[in-house]
Structures are given as structure tokens and as C-alpha cells.
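Reading a protein record of the kind used here takes little practice once its layout is understood. An example of such a record is reproduced below.
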Amino acid sequence: QDQLMESGGGSVQSGGSLRLSCAASRHTWGSYCLAWFRRAPGGEREGVAALDNDGTVSYTDSVKGRFTISQDSAKNTLFLQMNNLNPEDTATYYCAAGIPLTCDINYNFENDDFGYWGQGTQVTVSS
């Protein structure tokens, strides 16, 4: 069964950087919408960034200019470069792959819009 596995989370101070990776176990994701979501403690799931199969990217407003979503050339690893982190970025980050009607991260997705989800990686930013 195809799986996604995140890595790269950790604890950093405000202003620091982390790079998250999401590896696919047996699949390349060239035709999929790939996305990063996060859930803060006690909060709702929030879309962070998305990468469409035509290269179009989208970001939630709070991370624009700080986060960058990208994919390796083999199209089996997704990245999220996170710079200038702040405590509000503290959350569990999840990668997802699917073929939703739109790949705009600001759309109000349902879980079923993405057929594949990772287990999550924790990011903690201290002030």
C-alpha cells in the first residue's frame, strides 16, 4: 500500500528554520495535488501549502514569504522549507496527496479530498 511518511520536524526558536520532507513509499506523485496541512494543539486542521501537478503553488496567508513547497525531480519526495518560524507555527504537520477538484490550499477541503495522508511530524517553535 502506498504510504507517505513525514520527517524533519523538531524544536526551534523563533526566527529559526526547518525543512520538512514527505516521502512516498512506492509511488510517484506526478499527477497528484500535493499539500501540507497542520493542526495546532486544540485547533482545527489548517491548509498550509499545496503544489499542483502543473507546478502551481498556493499558500495560506500566514506563511506566505516564509514557507516554500517543492518537490524533488523524481517526484516522490515533497518538501516544505519553513523559514522565520514563530510560535504560531507550532503544530503537527501532515503531508497529503490526492486529486481534489482544486489544488488551491485555501479551499475548504474535506479529509476525503486527499486519498493519502502521512502520520504527521511535530514542529515546536519557542519564543
User: Anything to note?
Assistant: The mean pLDDT is 93. The two ends are 40 Å apart (CA to CA). Residues 68 and 81 are 5 Å apart (CA to CA). The first strand starts at residue 4 and ends at 7.
